[in-house]
Amino acid sequence: MKIFVTGVCGQLGHDVVNELAGRGHEAIGSDVAPGYTGIQDGTAVTRAPYIQLDITDGAAVSAALSRIRPDAVIHCAAWTAVDAAQDHEEKVRAVNACGTENIAKACKALDCRMMYISTDYVFDGQGRTPWQPDCREYAPLNVYGKTKLEGELAVSGLLEKYFIVRIAWVFGLNGRNFIKTMLALGQKHDSLRVVCDQIGTPTYTLDLARLLADMIATQKYGYYHATNEGGYISWADFAREIFRQAGLRTQVIPVTTAEYGLSRAARPLNSRLDKRKLAEAGFEPLPEWRDALARYLAAIRLSQSFE
Fold first, then answer.
1. Whose CA is closest to 133, among 227, 56, 70?
2. What is the pLDDT of residue 46?
3. 55, 117, 208, 259 from 14: Cα distances, Å
4. Does the annotation count 144 as an active-site position?
5. DSSP 8-state class, residue 199
6. 0.90 cut: is pTM over it?
7. Which of 36, 144, 162, 296 is catalytic?
8. Which positions of the chain have pLDDT values less than 50?
9. Which residue among 62, 98, 256, 280 is least packed, with the fewest CB closer than 10 Å?
10. Sequential DSSP letters for 25-51
11. 2-175+203-229+272-287: what CATH class?
């Protein structure tokens, strides 16, 4: 298959384009940057052709996809800085909503399938019941969630051949994330305050990329949730396991979101995502998150990428 991937300078897009290329697909990566060299296993690699593309430019998106004529598009590009989004709503909307709509319109014109990577932030994060993939009780709490929902609605409203895959608590080698932050802070401090009332499950981009590559080769369209297995935990639980596996003695002091008080954007307390639909559709679940963390820490040590 010829598969076009957006956002390959980010954590997920980087792993997706490399996974596809490694499977022998004709993968083409894109991002807004003029050039791109990814980091994988400590080595600079570019496994697939790369083109610069601003997804907020509808004419440019249409021209690029018309020229490439992919069989499928995996749309990973997004504004993901949740707190900063509160101060830049129109810029965020241009990327997450309008940019996604531009991609969807181009896919519609070419009659190719599209996969959109979304988030649990489209829900209000209340209660304790895991969110179902086909739930339509949308109530985003912040600009990021609102604009990602607008992207979802653009895809589902324009296309029939689409996957919408919601993920949460993402970590990958090619970018900043919670694990790298905890490692950096844990080496400098004896104790850290970490939120204990936001509950979810981490998602390793390397594992997720394999699942997305499996999915895009099928026609099992619809809404899905995908995180690693291993149960639901708090950020404080995650931090403790990070320090344990990394051999750090940093003490984790659990605090509520209200006590932490440093986030500009409201965060969902309930990020539990029900993933049973994956197995029902015949897709292999992602590995357990503790195993994913161990593999990730090994990759970080190899690359010496703690920043």
1. 227
2. 53
3. 17, 14, 12, 35
4. yes
5. E
6. yes
7. 144
8. 39-45, 305-307
9. 280
10. -EEEEEESSS---EEETTEEE--S-EE
11. alpha beta
